[in-house]
Design goal:
TIM Barrel, seven-stranded parallel sheet, Glycosyl-hydrolase 97 C-terminal, oligomerisation, single chain, signal, 37 strands, 655 residues, alpha+beta, Immunoglobulin-like, ten-stranded antiparallel sheet, Beta-galactosidase, Chain A, domain 5, 3 domains
C-alpha cells in the first residue's frame, strides 16, 4: 500500500522513473515532458510537447579542469519538488506573475566519484535547467573548459537565428554587440556566416508541430554569457559555446571559473503549438531571484533624445534645453542626453541644465562610455564606468545633481570579466539611486528581476541604424516583425524608435542628407506598444509638433511604457504581428505588416474582456493614417486590413 501511494504521489507532480536510468518530469498540465537518461554513460535529455518531439535526445554535462562530467557518468539518484510562486515586476511584459512548475534534480557521478547535479524546472510551456557542481576532493574551485550542453533540433525544423560576430570588429572595434541581422526560416543545413555560431535567443519552427525558443538566464559575475556553436555536418545539435578569446581586446578568459559548490546559469527552452507561449513567456524571470533590494522606488516612462535626428552636433546646452521643453510639452518623464556632453556642455553647465529640466518636470538620463581598454570608442565621458573608484565618485555627483539614470554604451563581449563589470555598474548605481540602460551590449539575462535598478538593454539592431543606413529602413518592417518573438520575448529591449520624421535629418527634409523612412505613422505608433521597455526614448523631434498628424502626437503623449498583461493574437516572425498589451484599465492592440502584399486579419478580442467602444488608428493603401472611433462586438472577430509597411492600433477599455 505504501509503495502504491508513493507512485501515485510522484505521478501527481509529473515525475516517474520509467527505467532504472530513465527519468521523466512533466509540467503541471502534463503536456510538456522532459526525459533524462545516462545512456552509454553520457547524460542526455529530450523534450516533447503533446507527445511530439521538440528537442531530440541532446547531450548534457561539462568538462572541467578537475574532472570530466560529460561521459562515463552514472545517474545515482533524483529528487523532486513543486514550485508555486507569485511575484510582481513593473519592468517587463506582465506585472503580476504566477509561476508554477515541477522541479527534478538528477545527480550524476563520474568515474572519479565526483558529483554533478542537473536541475530541471518544467512549467506548462517552459523548460529551464542548470548544473550544480560540488567540491572534488580538495578542489573548491574549477574552470569550465567546455560544456557538452546541446539542443538537438528535429530535422524538419527551420531557424530564425542571429549569427555571432567576430570580436574587435565594427565601429571602433566594439564587436560583439548583438547588432546583427536575423535570417528567417532558414534550413538547418545552413551554417552561420561568420563561423561563430548564433547569439541567444534562438527561435525554431518545428515543422507543423509548433515553435521552440532557446535562451539563457541568471547570468551574473559568476559565469560568462554563452551562445550556440554551429552544428557539425550531418547533425542538427547546437551546443553551448563560450566567448571568443579575442573579445574584450583579448583580455580575460573565455572559460568561466566557479567556486564549488556552485551553479551555472539556467538554459531555457520555451515551446508551443502556436507562438503565444513564445511571445508571452516570462521564464527568464521566473527562475531567478533579486540579488539586492532597491534603494529607492525607480521611475519609468517616456523620454526623448536629440541624437537620433540631430546627431552629435546637438549635444550642446541650447539644443538640449529645446529638447527638454519638447519633452515637457509631450508630458514625458525623461530626456536622454547622449555622448559628448562632457565636452560640449560640461559638468558645471550640466548641473544647471538638470535643474532646468527638473523645473519642467523632466528627469535626465546621461550617456556614458563603458571603456576602458576593451575597444577604441572615443566618445566621452569615457574611462569612468570601467573603474571602480572613478565610477563611485562620478555616481555620487550624479546623485547630487538629481540625475535619474544612465545609458552606458560600448561594451566588449560576454566573458566573465565583462559580466562582472555589468554587475558592478548595476550594484554601484543602485547605491546612488540610478536606473541603468545598457547600449552596445550583451543580451540581458533575467536582469529585470535580478537587479532592481536595471531598466533595459539594446542588444538589437536598434533605431540608430535607421539613421545610418537606408537598407535598415527598407527592412524596418521585417525586423520589427521578428522582435516580439525573439529578442523582446526574453528581455526588455531599448530600441529608441517610433519616429514621426519622414527623413532622418534635423529639418525632416528630403532635400537634406538623411535616410527615408518606409513605414507609416501608424506603424511607428504600433511599435511603441510592440517593443517592450519600461523606459522608452522615442525618436521624436520638436518639428513633429507641427509636421506630424495631431492624432499621432496625441497618441504618443499618452502611450504607456509599463504593462500589466501581454497577449499574442496573431502573427508570423518576419511577416506580421498582432499583439495586445494592457496597462491598468486600457488595452492596446498593435499590428504591423512586413509582407509584400496587404494583410487582412480577423482578430479575436474575446480573451481581453473589453467593452464595445474603441479607437482605431489605421492606414489606407497609400500608408496615409487616420484615427476614428468605432463600435465593436467583442464576441465577434474584428477585421483589420494592413498594407505593406503599415500598421493598425486599437485602444479599448478593459471591463
Amino acid at each position: 500500500m505504501r509503495k502504491k501511494l508513493l507512485i501515485l504521489s510522484l505521478l501527481a507532480i509529473g515525475i516517474l522513473n520509467v527505467q532504472a536510468k530513465d527519468v521523466k518530469v512533466s509540467g503541471p498540465d502534463g503536456k510538456l515532458q522532459v526525459t533524462i537518461s545516462d545512456q552509454d554513460g553520457k547524460p542526455a535529455y529530450s523534450v516533447s510537447y503533446n507527445q511530439k518531439k521538440f528537442i531530440e535526445l541532446s547531450p548534457l554535462g561539462m568538462k572541467t579542469n578537475v574532472g570530466d562530467f560529460s561521459q562515463e557518468m552514472v545517474m545515482k539518484e533524483n529528487t523532486t519538488s513543486s514550485i508555486d510562486e507569485n511575484y510582481e515586476l513593473k519592468t517587463t511584459k506582465k506585472s503580476k506573475i504566477h509561476y508554477v512548475a515541477n522541479e527534478l534534480t538528477c545527480s550524476f557521478v563520474n568515474k572519479d566519484k565526483h558529483k554533478i547535479d542537473v536541475i530541471f524546472r518544467v512549467s506548462n510551456n517552459d523548460v529551464a535547467f542548470k548544473y550544480k557542481l560540488y567540491p572534488c576532493g580538495e578542489n573548491l574551485c574549477c574552470v569550465i573548459n567546455e560544456e557538452a550542453t546541446g539542443f538537438n533540433i528535429p530535422e524538419k525544423a527551420t531557424s530564425f537565428l542571429c549569427p555571432q560576430v567576430l570580436p574587435m570588429g565594427g565601429f571602433a572595434r566594439t564587436y560583439p554587440s548583438y547588432e546583427t541581422d536575423y535570417e528567417a526560416d532558414a534550413s538547418l543545413s545552413s551554417k552561420s556566416k561568420n563561423g561563430q555560431g548564433y547569439t541567444f535567443p534562438c527561435l525554431f519552427r518545428i515543422g507543423e508541430d509548433g515553435w521552440a525558443l532557446l535562451s539563457e538566464t541568471g547570468v551574473t559575475s559568476a559565469y560568462c554569457g554563452s551562445h550556440l556553436k554551429d552544428h557539425k555536418d550531418g547533425s542538427t545539435t547546437y551546443t553551448i559555446a563560450f566567448p571568443h578569446a579575442g573579445e574584450c581586446n583579448g583580455n580575460g578568459t573565455s572559460a568561466p571559473a566557479i567556486s564549488m559548490p556552485g551553479e551555472t546559469p539556467w538554459r531555457t527552452i520555451t515551446v508551443g503549438e502556436t507562438l503565444a507561449p513564445i511571445a508571452e513567456t516570462t521564464v527568464s524571470l521566473d527562475v531567478v531571484k533579486p540579488l539586492y533590494e532597491a534603494t529607492k522606488k525607480y521611475e519609468y516612462g517616456r523620454g526623448t533624445w536629440s541624437w537620433i535626428m540631430w546627431m552629435d552636433r546637438s549635444m550642446n546646452y541650447d539644443d538640449q534645453k529645446q529638447y527638454i521643453d519638447f519633452a515637457s510639452t509631450l508630458g514625458y518623464e525623461f530626456i536622454l542626453i547622449d555622448a559628448l556632453w562632457d565636452k560640449n556642455i560640461g559638468y558645471e553647465k550640466m548641473e544647471e541644465l538638470v535643474k532646468y529640466a527638473a523645473s519642467k518636470g523632466v528627469g535626465v538620463f546621461l550617456w556614458y562610455n563603458s571603456n576602458g581598454y576593451w575597444n577604441d570608442a572615443p566618445q566621452g565621458p569615457r574611462g569612468i564606468m570601467g573603474n571602480t573608484i572613478a565610477r563611485k565618485k562620478e555616481m555620487k555627483w550624479l546623485q547630487k545633481i538629481g540625475i535619474k539614470g544612465l545609458k552606458i554604451d560600448f561594451f566588449g563581449g560576454d566573458k566573465q570579466m565583462m559580466m562582472q563589470l555589468y554587475e558592478d555598474i548595476l550594484s554601484d548605481a543602485n547605491d546612488y539611486g540610478l536606473g541603468i540602460v545598457f547600449h552596445g551590449c550583451t543580451l540581458p539575462r533575467g536582469w529585470e528581476r535580478m537587479y532592481p535598478n536595471f531598466i533595459s538593454s539594446e542588444a538589437v539592431l536598434a533605431s540608430e541604424n535607421l539613421n545610418f543606413s537606408q537598407e535598415r529602413n527598407d527592412k524596418e518592417a521585417f525586423s520589427a516583425c521578428l522582435h516580439p518573438f525573439i529578442r523582446n520575448a526574453v528581455a526588455s529591449m531599448e530600441f529608441g524608435g517610433s519616429t514621426l520624421n519622414r527623413y532622418y535629418n534635423r529639418e525632416n527634409s528630403k532635400d537634406k542628407r538623411g535616410n527615408t523612412r518606409r513605414t507609416s505613422d501608424v506603424f511607428e505608433l504600433a511599435t511603441a506598444v510592440l517593443f517592450q521597455s519600461s523606459v522608452q526614448n522615442f525618436a521624436l523631434a520638436p518639428n513633429n509638433l507641427i509636421d506630424a498628424p495631431a492624432w499621432a502626437i496625441e497618441f504618443m503623449k499618452k502611450v504607456p511604457t509599463t504593462w500589466d498583461e501581454t497577449k499574442f493574437i496573431d502573427g508570423y516572425p518576419g511577416k506580421y504581428v498582432v499583439l495586445a498589451r494592457r496597462h491598468a484599465n486600457k488595452w492596446y492592440v498593435a499590428a504591423i505588416n512586413a509582407e509584400k502584399k496587404t494583410k487582412v486579419v480577423n482578430i479575436s478580442l474575446a480573451g481581453l474582456n473589453v467593452g464595445t467602444k474603441a479607437i482605431l488608428y489605421n492606414d489606407n493603401a497609400k500608408l496615409e493614417g487616420n484615427c476614428s472611433e468605432l463600435n465593436i462586438d467583442p464576441k465577434k472577430p474584428l477585421k483589420l486590413t494592413i498594407p505593406t509597411n503599415g500598421g493598425a492600433l486599437i485602444e479599448l477599455d478593459s471591463l
